[in-house]
Amino acid sequence: MPLRKGSTCALITPFNDDGTIDVTGLEKLIEFHLEAGTDNLCVLGTTAEAAVMTMNERALVLTTIANIAKGKVPLLVGTGTINPESVKAMTQQAIDLGADANLIVNPYYVKPPQRALVKHFTTMADMGLPVILYNVPGRTGSNIADETVALLSEHESIVGVKDATGDLSRLASLKTLLGDRDSTFLKYSGDDDTTDDFVLQGGDGCISVSANLVPRQIHDMVHAALKGDTTLVKQINDPLRMLHKNLFCESNPIPTKWAAKRIGLVNAAYCRPPLDVLDPAFEGIVEESLKAAGLL
Known about the structure:
Elements: E1 6-10, H1 23-36, E2 40-43, H2 55-69, E3 75-78, H3 84-96, E4 101-105, H4 114-125, E5 131-135, H5 137-140, H6 146-152, E6 158-163, H7 169-178, E7 186-189, H8 195-200, E8 205-208, H9 215-226, H10 230-237, H11 241-246, H12 254-262, H13 283-292
Parallel strand pairs: 1-2, 1-8, 2-3, 3-4, 4-5, 5-6, 6-7, 7-8
């Protein structure tokens, strides 16, 4: 299925308290998003803790999700890491197990120059699965320049970008550089706090952490923004602003998994090492955010 404009949930992976994947809990989450109208599902990304999963565990997650959601909602699978051979292996697995597209982050820590990023992304795109570029300098230590994104957009299998910089000025710059391709190249916000303005200013949607908890609201807000309805955007999004902020009071997805357990979406708030469960010092502000969003 082609990826859609609108709301994409950066899905958490529910674990049991012993650290194993909660398959039943994962099935429950997928049904929750289908009912809520989530436009795309982004699975096995940073929020899913995919970096600490084995290939067999990735296969279990993908198979579980595809069995329920394939053909109902597009599946965007995170396959990015430092080693290009690992990216290829994860991308091939995603192709084999029914992915509709893959999300590839620029290789973190090693800080490739722009020409190396072009080679990296085009090599993966040559495998044939549609690619969403993922630019998150705060985590990777490097940036995909707007000019590089525009150059990569010329590849038939590179279909969009997730911009998690929070810098709204980049959207206008990118739209200008894309030229005629702007109408078909998907531009997703990866920053919940600025998604409303991003879409109102010409973005195509979001890949959202908050959507784990409030998928219907994020869907409705983004579609209102796509229509330019600023009044409705504000009405929906204002009660969520505290949530957008406080879900990052500790490293993602620690607060989100605690919040998901608090409202009964998952059975455990467990995060795999090197992460941990939410520091009790932050429980109060996350709970306050849930109340403001109408979830408690």
